[in-house]
Amino acid sequence: MAENTWLVVGLGNPGAQYAGNRHNVGQMVADELATRLGAAFKSHKTPSRIAEGFVRPGGPKLVLAKPNSYMNTSGGPVSALAKFYGVPVERLIVVHDELDIPFDTVRLKRGGGHGGHNGLRDIQKAMDSPDFTRVRVGIGRPPGRQDPADFVLKDFAGPERQTLPNLLADAADAVEAIVEDGLVAAQQRFHAPA
Known about the structure:
Elements: E1 5-10, H1 25-37, E2 42-43, E3 48-54, E4 61-67, H2 75-85, E5 92-98, E6 106-110, H3 118-127, E7 133-138, H4 148-152, H5 158-181, H6 183-190
């Protein structure tokens, strides 16, 4: 079943009060992908909401997931989904917010540290491996002396909201490029100077 199945997890916090937060950009990308697949999120026996579909007829299958847990405890739901669908860590893609990348920038990588991102830390621990692919969606650093923890839990600012649909589309394109063409080809496309 898992031969050409990819698990794509959009990180964020559950609940309407968090839906527009910078920290939830991963879930916003998952919503964009679900729209493209013509799929709707529904409850699942693992503690997540999932949507499933194919990138193209006969192409890779995507299992899109939004854990029902808070960001910092994402590992349990992700591990449970990987087991349920028989998806190895090499076909796990985690989409998350990244403070160290400028807003409106997408970067891709496999493995590495968690950089203080508690959602990634928990997934690494639960999967017993850091070797999953990350689609890092740049949200930039907070202005002035604002605490990063407060910054990520705020909604995108007015000018950012105008650009946000393009950023979500770019990140969704990056996920599709990874599953269709491989990480290296996707990196060459998305990391190229504009």
